[in-house]
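Progress against Task 2.4 (sequence-to-structure conversion) is shown through the following example record, which the project officer requested during the mid-term review.
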Amino acid sequence: MGYIYAMSDIHGCLDAFEYALSLIDLSGDNKIVLLGDYVHGPDSYGVLKKIMHLQNKYGTDKVIALIGNHEDMVCDGRWPIGGIGDENDYTREAEEDLYIAWMQGLPRYYVEGNTIFVHAGIDEEAEDLWEWGTDDFTFTEKYPAQTGRFYDKMVIVAGHIGTAEISGNPRFHDIYFDGASHYYIDGTVLDSGIIPVIKVDTENSKYYRVTETGDWLILPYDEEN
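Structure tokens generated for the chain above:
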């Protein structure tokens, strides 16, 4: 079994996305899960093109893209892909339709081993019935971030809420581990320029921070800071 890499909340930041991708290894059985919120930033179309290119190259079973609340906004007609400024850009109309159709087919969660990958979160009160007990809104818009122990050694990897907010430290844009069952990976890229990358060894239930200097076991936030 290979490793699973994950990142979230790219928000049109193509350069930061390209850098994060340079840190991962998609050889063998390794795969990547993208946790949503690809749009509403400086180059939303570029990010979408990159993800679709990766899926065409490696396959959707190896490059798994989940839907986030910003994709929901696009699908619902609440916000155009490029943001409000592109609302009247009719030259992109055909392109927009293609991307919306792609977004509409994105799953809301992915599970491998004991790890649940999701944009925002799940209904944890449902315990082992969370797949049926969680509504669409919760998968992509759950707020605030939930911490503590979840059911039967299951682990949740989510984005959506910046780790600066979760940690209470405005300078923290790294992976937040609560020491129990939750890893949050939204580095608030539009403010920080950072897209954290997590590497999951599902066979041994180990979670690593991926950096230029190597992969480092993630400790609880209170121990690392």
